[in-house]
Amino acid sequence: MNDRHAYAHSTLKKTLSERLPLLCRLRGWRCTRGSFEESRAMKAYRDFDTVSVNGQKEKILVSVRLRPLSDNEKSRNEVSDWECINNSTVIYKGNNPDRAMLPSAYTFDRVFGCGCPTEQVYTEGAKEVVFSAVSGINSSIFAYGQTSSGKTYTMSGITEYAVSDIYDYIEKHQERDYILKFSAMEIYNEAVRDLLSLDSTPLRLLDDPERGTVVERLTEEMLQDWNHFLDLLAVCEAQRHIGDTSMNQMSSRSHQILRLTIESSAREYQYHHLGARNSSTLTASVNFVDLAGSERASQTLSAGTRLKEGCHINRSLLTLGTVIRKLSKGGKGHVPYRNSKLTRILHNSLGGNARTAIICTMSPARMHVEQSRNTLLFASCAKEVTMNAQVNV
Ligand code: ADP
Ligand code: MG
């Protein structure tokens, strides 16, 4: 076995052992080391190459990330009420009076405890969805959660790991030519703004019969290299709308969508050699979506502007939840994409063939228990998941 084979072999083995429990759970198989189910799962995993249910590729990957207690929370003697007991279940271990009424264990595709680095969150909770765009399938990655739960921390890390990983991939796949394009927008109070332009006039959404919803006049930068990408991220950061609420001074009250479009085509020498015409051009986008805080408007001493923001945020998050829920059940019947700008813009990257990853972020602090429960409820509704009334730990 040469070095390349050895590397490929060890990667496959590692991937299998990481993904096996998930595959078994999705298929309802009992999985113990060396069992018949394990060898069946190994074979199924190789056959489908990616996690699949009944032969269909999983379209929605839902995970939860618990952040550590912040210094502020620690200084108020807050305690951590949540714990990840394995890589797919998070449990409530506090003694809230209504504990008996609510589920205490929540199971998702993946859960990430407070010591988990963002790189692992990217690799296990988003990477395969990101890479579907390299093979021509649109995708979206969302960070959902209350203000200060770690959405921006998580999503900005994931975006950087993803783009760096795509550059690595391109370098290793010289048989194709790749073009990366980047655009960025913000939705604040249902108005769409270009984060790569100094002009803050709201952008219109147009319905194009071929391309679906198009954001008119949105800047699209052709990425030259990694440093160019970092420069553009800095521009977005500076432009992003931030308001101060009583919960978090710099809390974000807008949705941010960073969109990377990947175009690739087979290199010329290849199709000359094969005597064929280049018909294998692929184009797809991956959207990195940092959603506005999911807390209710009433929690942020709402009045005037803040209340209006809260209403818009609630409506768009509610629509997003409904759209994702309907899609996870096969997308039959009416899917209300048109009820919010967020879902209209993402229409082509949600449902159909598209892949979606949702990373729900939460604070472990007791003071946030109600919001954490709402976040877990959103995550549970996004996908049919197991919620046990009690678990023994
Ligand atoms: P949000 O975007 O949800 O409002 P942020 O991403 O701004 O929240 O996170 C709030 C604070 O918590 C920031 O100071 C951030 O650095 C910190 N933080 C968030 N998640 C983590 C984490 N997993 N590990 C360490 N610090 C975190
Ligand atoms: Mg944020």
TrEMBL record:
Keywords, sorted A to Z: ATP-binding, Coiled coil, Microtubule, Motor protein, Nucleotide-binding
Keyword Transmembrane attached: no
Residues of the whole record sequence present: 1 to 393 of 564
Domain Kinesin motor: 59-385
Similarity-based family: Belongs to the TRAFAC class myosin-kinesin ATPase superfamily. Kinesin family. KIN-7 subfamily.
GO biological processes: microtubule-based movement
Any one annotated GO CC term: microtubule
Organism of provenance: Trapa incisa
GO molecular function, one term: ATP binding
Binding residue positions for ATP: 145-152
Name of the protein described by the UniProt record: Kinesin-like protein
